[in-house]
Write a structure and sequence with these properties.
By secondary structure, this protein is of the alpha/beta class. It is built from 12 helices and 8 strands. The structure holds cytidine-5'-monophosphate.
Amino acid sequence: MIPARERLIVALDVDSEKEAERLLDALKGAIQIFKIGSQPFTAFGPKIVDLVHKKGCKVFLDLKYHDTPDTVARAAREATRLGVFMFNVHSLGGMEMMKKCLEASSETAEKEGLQRPKILAVTLLTSITPEILQNEIGIKGKGVEDDVRRLAALAAEAHLDGVVSSPQEIRVIREARGKGFLIVTPGVRPAGSQMDDQKRISAPKEAIKAGADYIVVGRPIIMAKDPAKAAEEIIKEMEG
Ligand code: C5P
C-alpha cells in the first residue's frame, strides 16, 4: 500500500518558473509528485520538467495526448525520454492510439535503459456534462457513468496502467476493474477550502476510501500562505 504522503500529487499550475521553484522548495519533503499541465508546459517547455527532477521529485505530465496513433506514439517516446513518472492520453483517441502509445513508450524505455512511465487515460473530462455529450459531441449513450466505465475498460484492454477520473466515478471504475488499475483523481477539496471552479468535488479521505490511488490538488495548496502546512493537513485527512 502506498503511504498517503506519496499519493498526493500537487498541480504545479504556475505563471512563472520563479513561482515553480518557490513552491518546489516550500513543499520539499512533503510532496514527491508534481503535475505539469498544458499551461506551464506551453509556457516553459521541458525545462519545467527538469526543474522538478532537479529538486528530487517526480512528474505527472498531464498533456492528455489525443491525436493520430503514430503522432501520439512519437509524443510518448519523448515523454519517456523526459523521464516523467506518469503521463496521460485521452481515451477518446481510441484503442489503436492507446496501444501504439504504450508500445512506443515500452520500446523506448527498453532500448534506452529508461523506466517506462505509467500511462493513464482520461475517460471523460469532468467539465463534460450529459447535455454536452448528447447535444454537442453526439454521444448518445446510457449516461456519463456508463461511458466512463466503457472508456476505462477500453484503456484496460489497451493495457494502460489506469485512468484519470472524477471523484464521482472512482467507485464504479474500481468495482469494474479491480485492484492494480490506477485511478488518479482531481477535483479534491479538503474540509473548509474554496471550491474554485471545481463543481463535483470530494474530500481527500472519501476519494481514497472510494478507491483512488492518487489525488491531485492544486489551488488549496499552491495558493496557500503556507503550502507545506496545507499539504500536511490534506495528508492527515487522507490518512484519517
Ligand atoms: O486547483 P485544483 O485543485 O482545482 O487543480 C486541479 C488540477 O487538476 C488542475 O491542474 C486541473 O486542470 C486538473 N484537472 C481537473 N479536472 C480534470 C482533469 C484535470 O481539475 N478532470
